[in-house]
Structure formats: C-alpha cells, structure tokens
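Contributing new records

If you add data, match the layout below exactly. Sequence lines come first and carry their own label; structure lines follow with theirs. Keep one chain per record. Anything else will be rejected by the validation script.
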Amino acid sequence: MNTESFEFEILKDGSTLPEIVRKSFRIPVEDGRSAWVIINDRQYVVQDICIGGIGIVLKKDSVFCVDQVLNDCELNIFNISIKALNGRVIHFSSDHDKSNDKTWQCGIQWVDMRENDVNRISKILSTMKAQLLKDDNVLFGEE
C-alpha cells in the first residue's frame, strides 16, 4: 500500500482507557495588576497560577518556544516577590477568549523549586482558593 493508513484495534469488554488527570488546579488571577512575572528583564501579566507554574499572556511575536528553559524568573503576586525561580515553557495556545487575536496563552512550569518557595506559593494559593470559594459570583457565573 502506497498511502499511509491507521489501523484500529477493537477494545475488549471491560477495557478502560488511561485516565488523564490534572495534577493541580489553576486559579485565575482576576486583576492583572496584582500578579506578574519578570522573565529576562521583561514583565508579563499572570493569567492563572498553580503550585507548579503559571499561565501568562504573550503577543504572537513572542520570543519563547516550547521546552525553552527560563532562568532567574521573579514572580510577584499580592505584594509578595519570589525571586530566582526557574521554569520551562510547556505550551502555547491561541487566546480565543480575547477580542485581540494577536495574543497567545503560554504555560510555564516551575522546575527545581526550593521548598521555601513551594510553601510561600502554597500559602498564596490557599488564600486565593478561599476567596474564590467565598465569592458566589464566581461560583455561579453571575456578573
């Protein structure tokens, strides 16, 4: 056969597909002025955050690429600064929620985090989760 093709295998009764589960819940950052990250001396707004990383918004002509290592980042959230974080770009995706189609969402995973930094971010996230759960407007989608 000269063309490429796929072969499908019928699953036996009782077979299950592997379950894909997020390891951590990303908390949205409502106010772009309250959280930002400095990477290579440039400031980016943090869109969402979890214990293992952040999501930021980039312009289409970004200088980042998937698997790029980012050294010496500084995360600033609610007047707390966490310096010397190292990260890795794990994904880019189109930012469909925005009216401007020239932006991309970028996921950054923190690597080799110090225990003190993990604890500091964890405390911040606990506070953010408590506030999110308290806010009925967020829970029920009301505006």
